[in-house]
Design brief:
By secondary structure, this protein is an all-alpha fold. The protein contains 8 helices and no strands.
């Protein structure tokens, strides 16, 4: 019962953090975008490589874990190719809005499953995974909110749509928790899937924003520094935060 409580508290915090995009002035969001994206990329990569993969390897054979990561990376690339890249404009943005929300629903369900699987492994890993999800949700939802607004949605409609999409994280969490009662190895398997998802999001969606030609040299430098900071924070949590007993 405590695991369920932790999971739903973490998922609720994730949903609240993601919806902050509609409450913060767009000008302030734009100024903080590159450093926030850099930090999120560092946290995701650090969490995937230092926490999720080691825990998955402790529960499943290496070939199974690494094969699952590779399959997840391939599936995410196919998903991106199918729905189109997030960056679009004009009438294309109008057509993309429903598909964008559907893709976000899939990502959020995977995030919810990752949080649940992490808590099934240990509270420490659960809170680290929840923090990683929350940190990367904010810049992603900022981008989605801007796209929905450019597609002609009002502020209220965009927030309502994003709220509905956030509920899929709870669905992913519930399915993982129920699955754990039927298959004892579900937690390491879902952690392997989550690691692949985190690596894809960081390398494909976040890192190009940090090192692309769009931001100024100063903003790129700030993003690189926050990227290193994100890695350092995860490393510190991994090696200094030990489970009692």
């Amino acid at each position: 019962m405590r695991t369920w409580l932790y999971v739903f508290l973490a998922v609720a915090l994730d949903g609240c953090a993601a919806l902050l995009a509609g409450l913060i002035p767009e000008r302030q969001l734009e100024r903080a975008r590159e450093p926030l994206v850099g930090f999120a990329a560092g946290v995701l990569i650090g969490t995937a490589l230092l926490d999720m993969l080691p825990e998955a390897l402790a529960g499943l054979p290496a070939t199974t874990v690494l094969g699952t990561v590779v399959a997840t990376l391939a599936a995410m690339v196919l998903l991106e190719w199918t729905v189109g890249h997030r960056v679009t404009s004009g009438t294309e943005s109008r057509r993309l809005a429903p598909v964008l929300l559907g893709a976000d629903g899939f990502h959020n369900a995977a995030d919810g499953g990752a949080i649940a699987a992490a808590f099934l492994t240990s509270p420490r890993l659960g809170w680290i995974a929840a923090a990683a999800v929350i940190v990367h949700e904010v810049p992603e939802e900022v981008a989605d909110y801007v796209l929905l607004r450019k597609a002609g949605m009002s502020r209220t409609r965009a927030l309502v749509a994003m709220t509905g999409v956030q509920l899929t994280a709870g669905l992913g969490a519930v399915l993982t928790l129920i699955g754990a009662a039927l298959w004892t190895q579900i937690a390491p398997f879902v952690l392997a899937v989550a690691a692949g998802t985190f690596l894809h999001i960081a390398e494909v969606d976040l890192v190009p924003t940090v090192i692309g030609k769009g931001p100024s040299r100063r903003r790129r430098a700030e993003a690189v520094l926050t990227f290193v900071l994100g890695l350092a924070v995860v490393a510190a949590a991994t090696f200094l935060w030990r489970e009692p007993g």
